[in-house]
Specification:
- There is one protein chain.
- 75% of the residues lie in helices and 0% in strands.
């Protein structure tokens, strides 16, 4: 007699017993080992999770749940064990889940959100743009499904409560466990804002920043609808609420630095204050909130010329992160306060902090050099009123640091362009001036590369303090090198024009050989030549370059 898989209440009872006896303790131990970064226990726990996932002859929806558990363990374990192969396995499991036809559309939300998180982790390791683009695609789809669920009509509250209880404790083949909820939708919106922000920092495409702000505002508004938020059983609500407030505040601060809209900065400072109040005192996220809050307060202090904002920032930093090794918050307070008081007080301490950070040569070494050069410059401007010999030494140190930052080939091209432009603006010796301006002009095509939309390219080209092409040509003429001057003038003046000519190659021969391929290439040309990102309807007129 052939056995038949149990269904109905019997299947539900079998699931609950297996979950309580085997899967839940195993998953809890594995996730706890990840949280504790227990590298000794993780390999064995990962092996057991994989063994349970592949060995049990369970229904499809149960296998999907175990697959999600494996992804949740493998992705963070890759950082703990320093094994990129675990992250590749997590991505492979996520792709396997997405490619399968979902039993219900709610399960697609879980699968796509988990896959997007794994792809984002891999992008942060490898820098492969394909990963972050795919992560945005999957996270957007999950967000669309969440919006559909949130806007669907609800029945009477008694029927909704009975349905929730049935889904929670009596799952079957056609249901998703755990059931979709507002908190899960909130997490999806939070993740979409985070991945858009990540691509903005990588590509400097300002449309990503605008969409990240909109998505984060949607998540923040959703978090305010949780009816249980003020109850003593709120659980991690305060932490999650502080996370979205901090993320939205950081994005608004970025947008203020681009658009200089005071409303963004005022709102960002208020959001960080609320996030700081909600974040538990000993939580690791408190340091991140403190850094962002110090940055926003420093910007507002400079804009309003308010020493009180810098005093508040100093108090926040001492309370939240007294031993934080991060260099930027302390340097922002010291240099900003010196700028307001028009003195050199604190600049020596800022230089010591920056030189120590530069000596570590970490991943932010180029940003450290830019801050160090700007601090030397600020000190030199103050010293000019007194000892001119000291000022000359400080100007020389600033110029040397700008040159070092501009020549750092591993840094982003737009940062190198900024450093080269500042280097040129500070030197007067003809040979050095020609070297700086020539480097800046050669960086223009790299900074305004074709992967950016047209508006972003224009903003990158407008970040220089002067007309680089004309200045570089004049510098070469001072050295009696007319041929090099003409070359730099053509290169600097025709960055966008040369890119437009590159995509207008004659297609007549291709049309004769393959009309379909020629038509596809024509459509791609249209997309590349759009003046703005066609996927967004928000206007970006008046966007100014970053300062």
């Amino acid at each position: 007699m052939t056995g038949r898989a149990p269904t109905g209440p019997l299947a539900s009872l079998r699931f609950q017993l297996l979950f309580l006896v085997k899967w839940r303790p195993l998953g809890s131990r594995a996730l706890r080992a990840v949280d504790r970064r227990d590298a000794a226990a993780l390999p064995e726990l990962i092996r057991r999770v994989e063994e349970v996932r592949t060995a049990d002859a369970s229904p499809r929806w149960t296998r999907a749940l175990l697959r999600r558990l494996a992804i949740c363990v493998l992705a963070p374990a890759a950082d703990v064990l320093h094994d990129p192969g675990l992250l590749d396995r997590a991505v492979a499991l996520g792709l396997e889940a997405v490619r399968e036809p979902p039993a219900r559309w709610e399960s697609e939300v879980y699968d796509r959100a988990l896959l997007a998180e794994c792809l984002l982790r891999r992008f942060e390791r490898s820098g492969d743009r394909t990963d972050v683009d795919e992560a945005i695609t999957h996270e957007r789809r999950a967000a669309e499904l969440c919006r559909t669920w949130l806007t669907a009509p609800r029945g009477p509250w008694r029927a909704s409560l009975r349905r929730w209880w049935r889904d929670q404790w009596y799952p079957d083949e056609g249901q998703v466990w755990p059931p979709l909820s507002r908190t899960i939708c909130f997490t999806v919106f939070l993740g979409l804002g985070d991945v858009l922000h990540t691509r903005f920092e990588f590509l400097r495409t300002y449309g990503d920043l605008q969409r990240a702000v909109e998505t984060s505002e949607e998540a923040e508004a959703l978090s305010r609808t949780f009816r249980w938020a003020a109850s003593p059983w709120a659980g991690d609500y305060k932490h999650e609420r502080a996370s979205i407030l901090s993320q939205l505040g950081a994005l608004l601060t970025f947008r203020y630095e681009l658009l200089r809209d005071p409303a963004d900065l005022v709102r960002a400072v208020g959001l960080f204050e609320d996030a700081d109040r909600l974040m538990p005192r000993r939580d690791d996220g408190g340091r991140s909130v403190a850094r962002h809050r110090v940055h926003a307060l420093s910007l507002r202090g400079l804009a309003l010329r308010s020493l009180a904002d810098f005093a508040t920032a100093d108090a926040v930093l001492r309370r939240r992160a007294p031993h934080d090794p991060a260099w930027r918050p302390r340097v922002e307070i010291l240099t900003g306060r010196a700028a307001l008081t028009e003195s050199s007080d604190g600049l020596g301490e800022a230089v010591d902090i920056l030189e120590a950070a530069a000596a570590r040569d970490g991943g932010d070494a180029h940003e450290v050099l830019i801050w160090l050069a700007a601090t030397w410059r600020q000190w030199a401007l103050h010293a000019e009123a007194g000892d001119r010999q000291e000022a000359a030494v400080l100007w020389r140190r600033s110029s040397d640091t700008w040159r070092q930052a501009a020549r750092r080939e591993t840094a982003p091209a737009w940062r190198r362009l900024h450093a080269a432009s500042r280097w040129r603006s500070q030197v007067s010796q003809p040979q050095e001036a020609a070297e700086a301006s020539a480097l800046a002009v050669r960086l223009l095509p790299l900074a305004a590369w074709r992967g950016l939309d047209r508006l972003s390219q224009e903003r990158v080209l407008q970040t220089a303090d002067f007309d680089l092409a004309s200045g570089a040509a004049a510098d070469q003429l001072d050295l009696h090198d007319a041929e090099h001057a003409l070359e730099l003038l053509e290169l600097g003046r025709g960055v966008l024009w040369s890119q437009a000519l590159d995509v207008r190659t004659d297609l007549r021969q291709l049309r004769r050989e393959s009309p379909e391929l020629a038509e596809r290439l024509t459509r791609l040309r249209v997309l590349l030549e759009e003046s703005r990102d066609p996927s967004t309807g928000a206007s970006r007129t008046g966007l100014r370059p970053p300062v």
